[in-house]
Design goal:
By secondary structure, the protein is an alpha+beta fold. The protein has 22 helices and 15 strands. Strands 1, 2, 5, 6, 7, 8 and 9 form a seven-stranded mixed sheet that branches. It has a two-stranded antiparallel sheet with strand order 3-4.
Amino acid sequence: MELRLKASHEKKAACTALSIQEVLFESYKKGKSWNVSSPDARETLLLASRKGLLQVSHLILQVGRLPVVEVLDDICGTTALHQAASYGQDGCVELLLSAGANTQQCDAYGHTPRHLAAMFGHKSTFELLAHQEKQDPPCRAGTTATQLKDNFKIYHNMYYKYSRKLHSPFDRHDPRSVIRNLVKSIDLPKLQKEAQQMVLDMSKGEALEVKEAILAEINIIMNKVSTNNPTYRGDLRLAGSARDGSKLYAPDEFDINLVIQEDDLEVNVSNRREEEAPLKGRLRISMKTDKPHLEGNRFMASLYEEMNRCLAGHVVQDKRLSLVPPGLTSTQVGVALYMAWQGRLYPLLLVGVDLVPVLEVPWLEQVSRPFLTPKDITTMQLSNAADGTWRCSFALTEAMVLEALTPVERQVQLMGKLLLSRLKAEPWMPRHKKSFFMWFSTREWKIGVPSGFCFKNAFLQWLEQRQRRKLDLRGGWEEEGDKEFWVGQKEDPDQEVGKEQEDPSKWLVEVFRLMCVNPDESREHLATKNSSAYFGGECEGRKPGDGAPIIVQCLEEDLEKFCPDSASAKEARPLQRRY
């Protein structure tokens, strides 16, 4: 048995499950029953039903005598059958049904196990449960399991992914061939138009309703949490694509910072050892305080514990919104909430909410202020990681910069995000769809493509170069204030400096070249670069822009194909720095 778990509480639950399995198996061999304590038994069966651990499930039910209809997750009100159905664990579903599980038992939002199987696109699990059920009742949102099955298809179709055969059997054994096939299947001339079609306007319609419902619910939850633990009294601020206007496809992803003010803090900045710098950054952030809640990883870990307690028995107010498995998990720097939205324009959305608690402190002298830093920003944020370290958090600063993009800059950003989305599957997509983005060598592996981190920071670097080129063409800044005025203005800078318009596709190539070592090289000689963060790069490790050289090759070949007179590899080179 192999379990890949990150969070400490998940690892603890796995160790408990293994210990219980060993004890129950010995009791089983002796023909005896053994009553496991209820919290441990529930936690073990919860893990087993999610991971499809059949022997553990059988031992807990038959030897440990835990009732199969027991509610295991107080946040969603789900049983083992609900959990197994939501994770598509057909074998575990069969075992639970044979043990007498109730297919009509509802969770806190009226979902039967078949509702959850349909909601997460598990077709075989849905059909397995359908054979056991004579009724198909509606959930709190008013939809039946059969309707949810159809709504999942609608949701899936919102994400424009591949539906035809792209790879030959030989291609599947070469990750470079898989990436190349995926990029070549993208129609570059249409990418600009498609990006405009796929981007969301979060300021109106049902997208606004989703955003407002999510923020209102998080506010209610955090009021409960902060009442129990005043440490988490702070301001909720939206970050990420839902704020900066670059969210594609559907309003199903929200990044929220809980900004907290603390007095009497002493933030220390020191240099790391030379061998640590590439992995963790040149500078180390540490906190000197006598406050227990800021020691180690308590600031981050306690949020999960408090939210777990407050969400037990909590029911979301908006009937279109519900908490669904896994409900609440911990991340490296905060927590993640999993919800489902069932509306009109969006009959089903699987919504992820990342909530990160951050401390707001004055901008540290040792941390550089890049060219694009807004002039009026005097503070920065620090987040607490699971390993007990402190990190710079610039999500809100990045959002301010990206909010102020010109239309043509926004177009480049959207084209890049759309292109990368075509090279990876969403976590909730069916397994056969995920296979488009896998290569095979003894088992399936994900292809290496640039992460959102790499693209975002390359784009910010490109944006700085673009602003600096505008500075050169205008003859330099007469005053320091001029720089702040021009950075992030809505007018088209090319019109302001009298420069002719260029193709956004070429600018997109420039961004991807910045993820390569020596971006001025010919495309045949490009190599992957380990990219640093634009903001706070001294405090964070570098990350490789895997796949960027292949993407550049494919895009430049397409540019030459569609625009032979004006689009060459040479013209698509990055802007040169003159500073």
